[in-house]
Amino acid sequence: MDTLNISNATVRNWERLGTDTTGKLTKRANKVRSGKRIVPFEYISDKNNIALLETIVETILDGGYPYMDCIYTLCVGRLKQCGIYSDDNVRQVLAEYAGNSVISELTRYSLPTDEFDFIGAIYQSLLLEGNKNCMGSYYTPQKVAANMTKDLDFSAKQTFLDPCCGSGSFLLTLKCGDPDLLYGVDSDAVAVLIAKVNLLCKYSHVDFIPHIYCANYIGSDALSSCDDVFDGPFDYIYTNPPWGAATNADRVSSHIRSGESFSLFFVQSFYGLKPNGLIRFLFPESVLNVKVHKDIRLFMLENCAIDTITFYKENFTGVVTSYVDILACNAAPRDTIRVTKDGDTFCIAYDSFGKTDNIVFNILTNDDIKIIEKIKSRSSYDLSQSVWALGIVTGDNKGKLFDTPKHGMEPIYTGKEIARYFLKPAKKYIFYEREQFQQVAKDEIYRSPEKLVYKFISDKLVFAYDDTKSLFLNSANILIPSVPGMSVKTVMAFLNSDLYLFLYRKLFGEIKILKGNLSQLPFPMIPPDTNKQIEQLIDRIIASQDTSLIERLQDIIYDVFQLTEKEIALICSSI
Fold first, then answer.
1. Domain at 387-574: CATH code
2. How far is the C-alpha of 519 from the C-alpha of 331, rounded, in Å?
3. Which residues of the chain are in CATH 3.40.50.150 domains?
4. Does this model's pTM top 0.90?
């Protein structure tokens, strides 16, 4: 399906953030069951046509007509507008839909001819938000599809496949004079009908039957149902696959353990390419760095020559996640990868990818790399030998947490009370009965004379110091650091610094603060007087909660790594 769709990881992030495009609170369960309909405004070229679209949608909904019959009726009307309804090839295509009825109420509408895919927009507007989420059905606007296909060459009879073609966005943007070179597959029968009619109208002067087929490209029946019609392998395979949609894929891939639908589509498509063939997919931006997508990143690095990564700024109706497209070639890797972001295009070293445990695709400029290498060259340690723990999972916060203390209770902190360097006053109290909790760390960790606590869900590194042997809920994680020559407080200063936020974002790109990533951060060897100087500043910050002193800490840390003013300015602008 030619869609802008949503991964399971993205859904979990939405749940965590509680946001949608309107800024209102949302829940995944509500979205899946949602009866809301979304008009894809960005899919419409002329906003004056929106009123007609809404009128047609209202007519269909008020009449309670079957969607397939409605779309069939609109397609027939479109073919008549193009003057090709009676052509033999068109009649042959429509014969496949002989069982559908014409809805007379819809025949009175004249569809605009200046729209890219007006019937596809109507179909999208009919689908409930819950169905769109389950199907992963958010069609790609013309601007995005055109940007991805603009440089394709068909002068040597190159062939093109969209394995998730929906109503045909990518196919319609191609500058190809021969429709027999174009192929599409989609599991949605209604979308397949629209795509066929869209191509028939675009190539109204050509006598052809569209190579558009209703099948699940990553299902076990896909090859058997399409072998006789595909002349592959293909020169180009471009698409916007479902992101975490219910694809019902039963094809097993030894490369993709996550089961993520867009990863399965990419692997299956890659094996359908000719040598030196091009593959270009629209992905959620999380494909670059989130741990669950490590498998597809590893597959790309081991099998493809990644050519270009393009970032997009626009949002689409009903979708809040950021997205990128990745262009790769069925060839050996190259030395550099082009990145297009915020209107600028620059090159990054191919070997800058995959340097972390999770094979993160770091989008690093040459200046970024120089700073990171400089920091690493002056570092000797990391946090891999430190003690880590989770806060308490009570299993029943409502029944076990109290707003006012009772005899025998003690305060318990949540992530909300964690500020940089110090803890805000606790707002909850609890009876510390370990056997009553669902999950609990070792008592000696909670009761450690010194420990750091940090927010797990955060876009920044936020660490606080605790020497009160306090308890924490699982919205806070615990770290007892072990870095030679550094006290617990000094380690906290480095972790809270702008420099380490820069490192974390550049190296890992996560919106969560994960133990595995923190463990890899490099730490320098510092002299005892520097350690003492940092400790004294932190004591003053904790005692007075005067955050103006933090800037002095930042300067000391920059000096440890001998960073220049230019490098510091780049770090500050990046975060």
1. 3.90.220.10
2. 35
3. 8-363
4. no
